[in-house]
Amino acid sequence: MRAIQATELAELLKDEADITLLDVREPWEHQLASIPAATLIPMGEVSNRLDELEPARTMVVMCHHGNRSAMVGRFLEQHGFRDVVNLDGGIDGWSETVDPDVPRY
């Protein structure tokens, strides 16, 4: 699984790349700080909600700092997802380098 920085993700989103941005944090975290393009499926629900995701699409997985998303990314790869990318630094990195209006916690 490869990793990208928040600035690279911002470029992909700006270019309207054909990706799914999967936020695996908890709902309270997503409410506090989020990227509008993200789909929220908390880490503990991913295995039961795989049918909501398209294995053929590029899947960028994010969390707070990148640890949970790395675990979910490996899980997705084991279940047939072909192009899984971890957002290195997570929403915290996004807040630091792309959008300082997104709260840090």
Q: How does this structure look, described?
A:
With 105 residues, the chain is of the alpha/beta class. It has 4 helices and 5 strands, in the order βαβαββαβα. The protein has helices at residues 6-14, 27-32, 67-78, 90-97, and strands spanning 2-4, 19-23, 39-40, 58-62, 83-87. It has a 5-stranded parallel beta sheet. β4, α3 and β5 form a beta-alpha-beta unit. The mean pLDDT is 96.
Largest sheet: 5 strands, parallel
Mean pLDDT rating: 96
How much of the residues is beta strand, in percent?
15-25%
* Overall shape: globular
Distance between the termini: 26 Å
Give me the secondary-structure category.
alpha/beta
Order of helices and strands: EHEHEEHEH
User: Biggest sheet: strands side by side, in what order?
Assistant: 1-5-4-2-3
Number of strands: 5
Helix content: 25-40%
Spans of at least 5 consecutive residues with low confidence: none
C-alpha Rg, in Å? Answer: 12 Å
Number of helices: 4
Features:
105 residues, alpha/beta, 5-stranded parallel sheet, 5 strands
